[in-house]
Design goal:
The mean pLDDT is 94. The protein has two domains: 108 residues, Urease, subunit C, domain 1, CATH 2.30.40.10; 289 residues, TIM Barrel, CATH 3.20.20.140. It contains 15 helices and 18 strands. Strands 1, 2, 3, 4, 5, 15, 16, 17 and 18 form a nine-stranded mixed beta sheet that branches. A five-stranded parallel beta sheet has the order 10-11-12-13-14. Strand 8, helix 4 and strand 9 form a beta-alpha-beta unit. It is of the alpha/beta class and 427 residues long. Helix 2 packs across helix 15 and helix 11 packs across helix 12. 52% of the residues are buried.
């Protein structure tokens, strides 16, 4: 495809106007203000539109679209134990498959090309991701709080089998490992998980210090914070995506920076569950790779990365009283290239020749996008997910003008309407 007469964000997130951007064989193979001499298949007229790197939702539970609006008004621990865990105990791979497709349809329509997901149902998730055509770093988190080794003994070989099975997916579906959180892991599980990731050279995911209660309970039990406790086992020896980190201490932040841990900021979920505000500026100044995520659709309650960028920018300014606390370009980097780095996806996350054609087109013509003094400010503070006109992954258009190429959204809604009453009757 050749985008003509289009504006785009260059490597420094500066806008270049009236350009030509060509994609071929899954990569960006032409960028110039001059028309190419050779031909392309489809020509896309980008007049009045902006080409941006595809957004990366770096912490998500896509199939939790099934629980959107379920268990409202509860803090995290009660929400999990009283509502979410009992509901999830009734899920099958097939139900996870339909819930994940619904989540991916929502993400594609808002310019997301890749996401990191922590959930159950490996088979259902893999099937959904590969059919939809998105990119996903996926982890099925082991949980063991009482020291019983039976579950984890069975869990590790099953995970390794799944990892090998989906190694053929050309990087579309990448399996990771790790832990759900410190408070859902006994000492043996932390040791075994750390060794399993190291031995099989796996990237990791984990929730850390999401709530004050979680953070302080760990200090009471172990004498140190969750991050410091996991670090004492060498847990951060593999590349790790640590979600939330709302209550991270200065020493925790130092550990994240030194170990190369990505911290994924989930501001909407953290506010909705009353968990608090992550120290974003401290993280960035310490050199931590900070990415952005929505968390699940049951704690957000959407998967809208434009809304996440907007709220992330507002929060840090509001709590510090500094209107220049974080720039729009920093927020955009968190939502694109920083997420790609966290996922270990080389040569994606920027509009750059030779890099993967994971791209989104934003329509700049809406009233709320006019006038435009600085396009990055408009993207962060004015743009809506509905402004996305096209989303492509590896050069393949998956969403365009309200239509999905790979997902039958009406069928997905019907299947979910069929399954939910049966689940709710058992909870």
């Amino acid at each position: 495809m050749l985008f003509k007469n289009i504006s785009y964000l260059d490597e420094n997130f500066e806008m270049v106007s009236d350009a030509y951007v060509g994609t071929k064989n899954g990569v960006i193979d032409y960028i110039s203000t001059e028309k190419p001499d050779w031909g392309y298949g489809e020509i896309y007229d980008g007049t009045g539109k902006l080409l941006i790197p595809g957004l990366v939702n770096n912490h998500c539970h896509a199939a939790m679209t099934l629980m959107r609006g379920y268990g409202e008004g509860l803090p995290l621990q009660e929400w999990l134990t009283e509502k979410i865990f009992p509901f999830e105990a009734k899920l099958t791979d097939d139900v996870v498959y339909w819930g994940a497709l619904l989540g991916m349809a929502e993400m594609l329509a808002s310019g997301v090309t890749s996401f990191s997901d922590m959930y159950l149902g490996d088979e259902g998730m893999a099937k959904a991701v590969l059919e939809a055509g998105m990119k996903c770093n996926f982890m099925n988190a082991p949980i063991c709080t009482d020291g019983t080794p039976l579950m984890q003994q069975a869990f590790f070989p099953k995970s390794l089998e799944s990892i090998k099975k989906y190694g053929h997916s050309r990087g579309r579906f990448v399996q990771e490992f790790g832990l759900h959180a410190e408070y859902t892991a006994c000492e043996r599980l932390i040791k075994d998980s750390t060794e399993f990731s190291r031995k099989n050279d796996l990237r990791q995911q984990v929730h850390i210090s999401e709530t004050k209660r979680e953070h302080e309970d760990c200090i009471k039990r172990t004498g140190v914070t969750p991050a410091q406790y996991l670090d004492s086992f060498g847990f951060f020896g593999q590349p790790t995506n640590a979600a939330h980190c709302v209550w991270a201490s200065d020493e925790d932040i130092k550990i994240f920076a030194e170990r190369g841990v990505t911290v994924t900021h989930c501001p909407t979920s953290n506010m909705k569950l009353g968990s608090g505000f992550m120290p974003l500026r401290k993280m960035l100044d310490a050199g931590v790779n900070v990415a952005l995520g929505t968390d699940g659709a049951s704690s957000n309650n959407n998967l809208n990365m434009f809304e996440e960028m907007h709220i992330a920018a507002l929060i840090c300014r509001g709590i510090t009283g500094n209107a220049a606390e974080v720039s729009s370009k920093e927020i955009l980097r968190m939502a694109t290239i920083n997420g790609s780095k966290s996922q270990g996806r080389a040569e994606t996350g920027l509009i750059k020749k030779g890099w993967h054609a994971d791209l989104a087109v934003v329509d700049l013509s809406a009233p709320h996008m006019t006038p435009c003094y600085d396009v990055t400010d408009n993207l962060v503070f004015s743009a809506q997910a509905s402004d996305v006109a096209l989303t492509m992954v590896d050069g393949e258009v998956l969403y365009r003008d309200g239509k999905w190429k790979t997902i039958d959204v009406a069928k997905v809604r019907d299947k979910i309407s069929y399954h939910l009453p049966r689940i709710l009757a058992q909870v």
